[in-house]
Amino acid sequence: MNKRKTVLLSLALAGAAAVHAQTEQAGKSPWGSHDEIGTLNMMNESTTRALFSAVRSGKVYDLGVEYFTGMPGFTELGDPPYQFWMTHTPRGTVVGNISKQGAAINRKVSYTGDAISMYTHTGTHIDALNHFGLHGKIWNGYTADEHLSDRGWDKAGAEKIPPVIGRGILIDIPAYKGIDVVPGNYVLSLKELQQLIQAQQLQINKGDIVLFRTGLMKYFYTDREKFMHNTPGVSIEAIRWLIEEKGVMTLGADNLSLEPLPSTDSANWLPGHTYLLAQKGSMFIELVYLEELAAAKVREFLFIGTPLKLRGASAGPLRPIAVSL
């Protein structure tokens, strides 16, 4: 191909990408003009009751990570790190007599207090639908001009997220590939996802919660650099197939962002975030601890996650659990 044809082809591809970007719009909810929770509307009493009835084990798996000073997070993007400090200590309350009860009482009953500060997307958390938008709008057409103040969003904030309960499915990529941790440049393609589902004999149903394990949690507590940089993830094609073809309710992963970082799409930073949150109204969970679940070879489970109700926030810290079915 000569230089002129190469240039023309490049211009045509760039033009097509620009047109596609302009046609991508924030989605309108099929659950009504006032909807703020998107696909979590799939939950209902009958399916929840059926899931609890299917539990045959008392074993509970904790899917949340610990919070600690120096933990991996989005500090590279300029977000504040997790911080912890003491507000009261036993010696300090004796000297300061904070309770006004006198030294003798303060020496008998010790008093300790502490505080934290963190980015809401720190540790195990679920992204709220106001986190990503398109062309000035978030899910269901809400705009920042009308609904975002100095106190956060008055639409689609973390306080609106209900307890997340559903049938969970574990996609264990390292187990499928016969390795401990998938490499940093790895992207799970749609083809490989379908092969994995067949090989592990998984059945994905409408309304499921699909969690991906990359094995990265091996480094979460021990090697921040290995955990943080050039992380693997799920391709946008695989994400689209799960949402549009399989009808899953939400997704999650043990990495920072579900999809790979840095993004594989140079024209769209984190396209999976935009697609899921702004276009499809599908919240998703990041930094899920899946090691014990994988070690026990539990592939199907009852998932329960209760996010903190942080008014107006773009994410809710989450302490999810799994009970095998």
From TrEMBL:
**One Gene Ontology MF term:** arylformamidase activity
Source organism's superkingdom? Answer: Bacteria
SUPFAM superfamilies associated with the record: Putative cyclase (SSF102198)
* BP-aspect Gene Ontology terms: L-tryptophan catabolic process to kynurenine
PANTHER family for the chain? CYCLASE (PTHR34861:SF10), PTHR34861
| The name this protein goes by in its record | Cyclase family protein
